[in-house]
């Protein structure tokens, strides 16, 4: 879809709200009634997701679409429809493409994350707007005694919603680290340190590093903008 058509699409939510407020005639009020049983028998809308680009800027819908299609490299055609500012509906047409799109991110466009959330197609505009970014994180220098799955999950959960953790440590120039796949809340500042407090012992502090992270602000810690775009962008170096 051409970028110029997004202006029409992003007004759909406002138009739908306006229609609800109209003074309707009795005939117009007599809508089509759909019983719960009939609704339950409707075929499932498969492999559809709402997608939102995490940014305060506006970009070309067509440019985003081309970039995502190149990254996804799907086997079948994928529908990519703008429905609002930086908001889209994406539908795959085979399970393999669906799993890749939903599970192998983060998908970045000009360092901004395309967030995805399953969508059942029951409304014109999704009631749940995507606000999670899937990433791999690294938790560095966890003492060997505490490198068990239950503790790793608890540490990772301080950063985001945990999908899975890798118990096997990975060696690096900075020492060993453990990886975890998490969903980051776009409305929460990034966590760069996690702590563990064994009863009767001093608290331990461990560095968190992010793999393939979208751009974020060094001042407020939120993803979607950089420090020069945060407020006036005027901060002292010691405040960062």
Low-confidence stretches: 1-10
The count of DSSP E runs of length 2 or more, i.e. the number of strands, is: 11
Gyration radius, rounded: 22 Å
What global shape is seen? Answer: globular
**Roughly what fraction of the amino acids lie in strands?**
25-35%
Distance between the termini: 41 Å
Structural class: alpha+beta
Average pLDDT number: 89
Helical amount among residues, as a percent range? 10-25%
The biggest sheet amounts to:
6 strands, antiparallel
Tally of alpha and pi helices: 7
Spell the H/E element sequence.
HHHHEHEEHEEEHEEEEE
Give the SSE layout.
Blueprint (H helix, E strand, L loop, with lengths): L5 H4 L2 H10 L4 H4 L6 H5 L7 E6 L7 H12 L6 E6 L2 E5 L3 H9 L3 E3 L2 E7 L13 E9 L8 H9 L3 E5 L4 E3 L2 E11 L7 E4 L7 E8 L29
Antiparallel strand pairs: 1-3, 1-5, 2-3, 4-5, 6-9, 6-11, 7-9, 8-9, 10-11
Quick gist of this model?
The chain is α+β, with helices and mostly antiparallel strands and 240 residues long. It is 22% helix and 28% strand.
Describe this structure in words.
The chain has 240 residues and is α+β, with helices and mostly antiparallel strands. Helices cover 22% and strands 28% of the residues. The protein has seven helices and eleven strands. It has helices spanning 6-9, 12-21, 26-29, 36-40, 61-72, 95-103, 149-157, and strands at 48-53, 79-84, 87-91, 107-109, 112-118, 132-140, 161-165, 170-172, 175-185, 193-196, 204-211. The strands form two sheets. Strands 6, 7, 8, 9, 10 and 11 form a six-stranded antiparallel β-sheet that branches. Strands 2-3-1-5-4 form a five-stranded antiparallel β-sheet. Strand 10 and strand 11 (204-211) form a beta hairpin. Mean pLDDT is 89; it is low at 1-10.
């Amino acid at each position: 879809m051409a970028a110029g058509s997004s202006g029409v699409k992003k007004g759909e939510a406002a138009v739908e709200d306006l229609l609800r407020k109209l003074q309707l005639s009795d005939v117009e009020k007599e809508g089509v009634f759909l019983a719960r049983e009939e609704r339950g028998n409707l075929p499932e809308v498969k492999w559809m997701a709402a997608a939102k680009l995490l940014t305060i800027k506006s970009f070309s819908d067509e440019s985003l679409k081309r970039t995502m299609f190149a990254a996804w490299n799907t086997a079948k055609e994928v529908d990519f429809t703008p429905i609002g500012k930086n908001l889209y509906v994406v539908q795959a047409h085979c399970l393999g493409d669906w799993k890749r799109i939903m599970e192998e991110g983060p998908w970045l466009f000009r360092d901004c994350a395309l967030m995805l959330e399953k969508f059942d197609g029951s409304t014109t505009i999704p009631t749940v707007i995507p606000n999670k970014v899937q990433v791999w994180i690294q938790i560095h220098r966890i003492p060997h005694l505490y490198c068990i799955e239950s503790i790793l999950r608890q540490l990772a959960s301080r950063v985001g919603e945990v999908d899975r953790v890798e118990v096997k440590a990975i060696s690096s120039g900075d020492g060993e680290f453990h990886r975890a796949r998490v969903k980051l809340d776009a409305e929460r500042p990034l966590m760069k340190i996690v702590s563990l407090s064994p009863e009767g012992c001093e608290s331990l502090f461990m560095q968190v590093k992010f793999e393939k992270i979208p751009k974020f602000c060094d001042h407020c810690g939120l993803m979607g903008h950089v420090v020069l775009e945060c407020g006036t962008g005027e901060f002292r170096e010691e405040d960062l």
